[in-house]
Design a protein that fits this description.
The complex is a heterodimer of chains A (242) and B (676).
Chain A lengths: L2 H17 L2 E2 L2 H10 L4 H15 L2 H11 L7 H15 L3 H11 L2 H4 L2 H17 L3 H18 L1 H11 L18 H18 L7 H17 L2 E2 L2 E2 L7 E2 L4
Parallel strand pairs in A: 1-2
Antiparallel strand pairs in A: 3-4
Helix pairs in contact in A: 3-4, 5-6, 5-11, 8-9, 8-10, 8-11, 9-10
Chain B lengths: L2 H26 L4 H15 L3 H9 L2 H20 L2 H18 L3 H9 L3 H7 L5 H15 L12 H11 L4 H14 L3 H9 L2 H8 L4 H15 L3 H9 L4 H9 L5 H17 L7 H14 L5 H14 L3 H9 L2 H9 L6 H14 L4 H9 L2 H8 L5 H14 L3 H5 L6 H10 L5 H14 L7 H6 L2 H8 L5 H15 L4 H11 L1 H8 L4 H14 L12 H15 L4 H14 L4 H11 L10 H6 L4 H14 L7 H10 L2 H6 L7 H24 L1
Helix pairs in contact in B: 1-2, 2-5, 4-5, 5-6, 5-8, 7-8, 8-10, 9-10, 10-13, 12-13, 13-16, 15-16, 16-17, 16-18, 17-18, 18-21, 20-21, 21-24, 23-24, 24-27, 26-27, 27-30, 29-30, 30-33, 32-33, 32-34, 33-35, 34-35, 35-38, 38-41
Classes of the chains: A mainly alpha (242), B mainly alpha (676).
Chain lengths: 242, 676
């Protein structure tokens, strides 16, 4: 059969599917799934990538011992990275900065935005602890020069210093800077910068694969009825409802 | 912010910061090793990411102290006494020096002056991985500045060392190797020697490596390709272009910086050897990638517009392709954003300038949006680079004959800021502004008066007396265009402002380019109605004498051309004018010198031949009474026989004028034989 006719036939099949949805039974589906070969090593790598990126160093170590999967990054660096992240999360920003500089002095020297956000977080912590004098001094000495270099930093600085003007910060328009989520935001920014400096992806691959799965299912929903995965945590195939 | 509190805070902060700063400096020279190490670490954490602190520690002499600590520690390590403490001192001091050198030229200079560079280089051959890493990082920082010493590739041991760096397992070290190439490879000899040493192969293999390896490899490759078609040819030919396909692939990389560097590498390759990368898909990909990178908020976005410029500059086909991919609209869209940093602003303006440099479709698209307003505003920007770029962009758009004819640019809103910027402290801005004015005063709708009313002429005349030759040149150029086909009232005003003596001295300027423009200006002055011919006779004819003198000694064809057209225009006047021209052309009999017009008639430049024949045509116009006598003088000087020899001139223009001249000669000769 010529290529032309193959194309025509496939188009017709898709056309047919579009009008009435094709039904795929659990049997057929599982048979198809079994035909797909996924190497165990690849699965392990995927899990390892997740553990390493998210910083679960003990789990990564266990996985390596049990499966022989080599992490794509020196596990010791994960401990350092997690220490930095934790320091920011606990509000010990100065400590975090020193740790990053020990890890790689280039990171903060070449990343003005991250450096500013860390200094800003330091200021927030001073304000949180009621050290008004110290906070003002710090803002003047450390942050104001950065604001002069960059307009958007200046705006962020103004917002942060505004915290001092309010008696009741829980009720002020910039109060969310004192929220724990601000610490988490800064921590994840540092985490990402360290990963990038180590030539590592800043996001694990697993979540994007799951997103792709959801996208693929919704594409397929338009064309067919098939055993769907509704609960991602268990990944059980639901029977198709016709 | 409450004002009262902040004032007190300034006072306290100044005190505490100074004492803390000098405390660290003091402790750096402590004899207690622990105190010293702690001070080093503290210093490092103070300066990283903080330019202000770098500067203040620099002023306090921190760099020589740290360099001395490093030197001492390296010496001790050489004596086989390396222990973890010593190692820590080395790592910390290298990090401090590296941070001083990071993105801060004053710091680089200080590190070099303190003699720390050789010590940092020695760290690269250390056995400890951490020491090597710290050393490599600091040396790399230095090599990212243009102040770094030039690496001599021609020395064999240097090349060996470079290869060992590139072959290193450590990313920092191989990245350093690439940085050295990017910094120091300048000549084609160096490019060739790097190629012969197999560096390209090594760099190509780094294209498969990590993010930082890819990036530094792409930069080095571009450096080795730049303007060296021989190396490009060998690179593209090797391994059936496998490396080239990897670079093309990297234009689609997920990291913005990698996409930019891969694009830049391909642009260099293309500009070096235009025969490659002609595939429409690749060209479109490059254009779209760069347009998309304009949106990057960081440095990549700043540089993307410059890359786009180098891709499309001087290339009409690329400009067309970019136009079809909405480049004008996209650039405009980025131009409208608030708080553009000066570098980005400059880049977008220059890219727009290149887009509009050749194609009318681009200019009309530009003018149909509101871009021109933004560009005119940018003429008054704080940054000199932005002001200059705005003028260059405007100049490009003002090439549009269509819009010049419509007089679209000669409005007060446009002219006033332009005249103001003629006073700019920066020469390059002045030159760029003169460029725009040169274009917009070529006007067909008699709207020059707006320019004159805004004080433009006075400014231009002032600038034509500048000490800077480039400014004199461009000011004259603008005046020349202003004079082009101007009505007699306008010419009169211009001439009053300029004066014959100033023009005469400009015709004799030491710079040939200035001479040429001055002559061209006079040519436009005496063009048109007969009364304007009189200008060259003002002040005892110093202008005409100056023209004659310049023609006598003219070395450049362009000067001969402009000068001959001045004479040619004057020769259209009355008898008296024609006689004056003839006197300039024919040297006095006693000197015995050959008339320079003979040299012009024999020139290789057809434009000069045309101008020379034209002058003769105007002198021998058979309707004027003195023509017969003038012909005899010309014949005596050998000019008639020279023109006779030019009947088959290869240039049609010349041939046509020669035919006219010979026709006139014939008529005059017939008149003569009839009357005798």
């Amino acid at each position: 059969m010529s290529l032309f006719w193959i194309v025509i036939r496939q188009l017709a099949e898709i056309e047919a599917m579009a009008t009435s949805k094709k039904v795929i039974t659990r049997e057929e589906w599982e048979k198809k799934l079994n035909d797909v070969m996924i190497r165990k090593e690849d699965m392990n790598k995927l899990v390892m990538n997740f553990l390493v990126t998210e910083g679960y160093v003990d789990a990564a170590e266990k996985l390596r011992m049990e499966s022989g999967t080599e992490p794509d990054i020196d596990l010791a660096t994960i401990t350092d990275r997690m220490a930095v992240k934790k320091a920011v999360q606990c509000g010990n920003v100065e400590d975090a900065i020193e740790k990053v500089n020990d890890l790689n002095p280039e990171i903060l020297d070449t990343n003005p935005q991250l450096f500013f956000h860390l200094q800003q977080q330091r200021l927030i912590e001073l304000i949180r602890n009621g050290k008004v004098e110290e906070a003002l001094e710090f803002a003047q000495e450390e942050l104001a020069p950065r604001g002069e270099e960059n307009q958007s930093f200046l705006e962020e600085l103004e917002k942060t210093v505004a915290l001092l003007a309010f008696e009741d910060v829980s009720n002020c328009p910039v109060g969310d800077l004192l929220d724990i989520s601000q610490r988490l935001k800064t921590a994840s920014e540092v985490n990402a910068a360290i990963l990038t400096s180590q030539n590592h992806e800043k996001d694990p691959k697993l979540p994007s694969l799951l997103k792709m799965l959801i996208w693929a299912q919704s594409q397929l929903d338009e064309k067919a009825v098939y055993p769907r995965i509704n609960d991602l945590s268990t990944a059980t195939l639901e029977d198709p409802t016709v | 912010m409450p004002t009262a509190t902040s004032t007190t805070a300034t006072a306290t902060s100044a005190n505490t910061s100074t004492s803390a700063t000098s405390g660290i400096i003091h402790r750096l020279s402590s004899t207690d090793q622990d105190v010293k190490l702690k001070a080093l670490r503290q210093l490092k954490n103070q300066i990283i990411g903080n330019r202000t602190k770098k500067l203040s520690f620099l002023k306090l002499g921190a760099v020589p102290s740290v360099a001395a600590i490093l030197a001492e520690a390296v010496l001790a390590a050489d004596g086989d006494r390396i222990n973890s403490f010593n190692k820590n001192v080395i790592v910390q001091s290298a990090a401090v020096l590296g941070s001083f050198a990071c993105g801060f030229d004053a710091g680089v200079q200080a590190v070099l002056d303190a003699g720390a560079f050789p010590d940092l280089l020695r760290l690269l051959s250390n056995l400890d991985e951490k020491v090597v890493d710290a050393g490599a990082r600091s040396v790399k920082m230095i090599y990212q500045s243009k102040l770094a010493p030039k690496y001599d590739f021609l020395q064999e041991k240097n090349m060996e060392f470079l290869l060992s760096l590139l072959n290193s397992e450590s990313e920092t070290v191989s990245g350093l190797g690439a940085s050295i190439i990017t910094h120091s490879c300048k000549t084609s000899v160096e490019q060739k020697i790097l190629f012969d040493a197999g560096v390209l192969k090594k760099l190509s293999s780094l294209l498969e490596g990590s993010l930082s390896q890819k990036d530094s490899s792409l930069e080095s490759l571009a450096t080795i390709f730049k303007d060296n078609p021989e190396v490009v040819l060998k690179f593209v030919g090797s391994e059936s272009g496998k490396a080239l396909s990897s670079i093309i692939e990297l234009v689609k990389d997920k990291f913005a910086r990698t996409r930019l560097l891969a694009s830049l590498c391909l642009i260099v390759l293309r500009n070096t050897s235009p025969c490659y990368l002609q595939d429409i898909a690749i060209k479109t990909k490059l254009v779209n990638t760069l347009l998309e990178l304009l949106g990057d908020p960081g440095q990549v976005g700043d540089e993307a517009s410059f890359a786009l410029s180098s891709l499309i500059a001087q290339k009409e086909d690329m400009q067309k392709l970019a136009f079809e991919n909405n480049a004008i609209d996209k650039l405009y869209c980025h131009l409208q954003k608030d708080s553009l940093n000066p570098r980005r602003f400059e880049g977008i303006l220059l890219a727009l300038a290149d887009m509009c440099s050749k194609l009318e479709c681009c200019r009309s698209r530009f003018l149909s949006s509101q871009v021109l307003n933004s560009v005119v505003d940018a003429v008054a920007h704080d940054s000199a680079d932005v002001r200059s770029a705005a003028c260059i962009c405007f100049k490009s758009v003002a090439r549009s004959i269509q819009n010049l004819s419509a007089g679209s640019f000669l409005t007060e809103a446009v002219v006033i800021p332009l005249v103001r910027v003629l006073d700019d402290p920066s020469t390059s801005v002045q030159v760029a502004a003169l460029g725009v004015i040169s274009n917009i005063v070529v006007d067909f709708t008699a709207r020059r008066s707006i320019f004159i009313r805004c004080g433009g002429v006075k400014q231009l005349v002032q600038l034509s007396k500048s000490m800077d030759a480039a400014i004199r040149l461009n000011a004259l150029w603008a005046l020349r265009n202003l004079m082009f086909q101007a009505e007699s009232k306008c010419k009169e005003g211009l001439f009053m402002e300029l004066t014959a003596s100033l023009l005469a001295s400009l015709i004799c300027d030491p710079e040939p380019f200035v001479q040429e423009q001055a002559l061209a200006l006079v040519r436009n002055l005496v063009d048109g109605c007969i009364s304007s011919v009189e200008y060259v006779f003002a002040e005892d004819g110093i202008l005409l004498d100056a023209v004659g003198r310049q023609l006598q000694s003219a070395l450049k064809a362009e000067i001969g051309i402009q000068g001959m057209y001045v004479l040619s225009n004057v020769a259209t006047g009355e008898e008296f004018h024609k006689e004056a021209v003839l006197n300039q052309l024919i040297p006095h009999a006693e000197t015995g010198a050959q008339a320079y017009i003979i040299k012009f008639l024999q020139s290789n430049d057809s434009r000069l031949r045309t101008a020379a024949v034209w002058t003769v045509v105007n002198l021998t116009n058979s309707l004027s009474p003195g023509a017969v006598d003038r012909l005899e003088i010309l014949r005596g000087a050998g000019i008639v026989s020279q023109i006779n020899n030019m009947q088959n001139d290869p240039c049609l223009d010349v041939k046509l004028r020669v035919k006219t001249a010979l026709g006139q000669f014939k008529t005059l000769d017939t008149c003569l034989s009839h009357s005798s």
